[in-house]
Amino acid sequence: MASDREDQKPKIDDQYRDHLVTFDGPDDPPNPMNWPFSKKFITTISYGLTTCWITLASAIFAAAIEPVSAELNVNTETSAAATSLLVFGFGLGPLVWGPLSELYGQKWLILIPYFIAAIFAFGTATAKDIQTVLITRFFSGLFGSAPITITGGVMADI
């Protein structure tokens, strides 16, 4: 099995070898390919759920557009902008999180932004005006896009 992995290695020019991150041989335990099935399973479920919950956050507000409009005395188009701003944050986030995950790793660049997105979600829930709702939804999308952006790379690694 190790020989199959050796055959699949890409050819790299000598000038880039100093920048190549490798493991200590094909059987190195920190290599995600060598993790036991249980660790791979838990990792897959954990990252899958974080992606699922933040994606759900983009649509869940749609049911609350009319009550939010009534509560904050704004029209429904203004309240609907909260969903648009969250999705706009989803669009901008990968421009930040993708390159940072290449530099600093994946684990902390999913956990920290996801936690910050949750804080902004609480801000949305406790908002007293529409401006707060719109701003917190945008930042929830911006920080919440980290799991969506990075989870594919995590799955490819294991």
From TrEMBL:
Major localization class: membrane
PROSITE patterns named in the record: MFS
Keyword Kinase applies: no
GO cellular component, one term: plasma membrane
UniProt keywords, alphabetically: Glycoprotein, Membrane, Transmembrane, Transmembrane helix
InterPro entries in alphabetical order: MFS, MFS_dom, MFS_trans_sf
GO molecular function: transmembrane transporter activity
Keyword Glycoprotein: yes
Transmembrane feature ranges: 41-65, 77-96, 108-127, 134-156
Subcellular localization(s) per the UniProt record: Membrane
Pfam families tied to this protein: MFS_1
Membrane topology annotation: Multi-pass membrane protein
Stored SUPFAM superfamilies: MFS general substrate transporter
Residue span(s) of domain Major facilitator superfamily (MFS) profile: 41-158
Protein name: Major facilitator superfamily (MFS) profile domain-containing protein
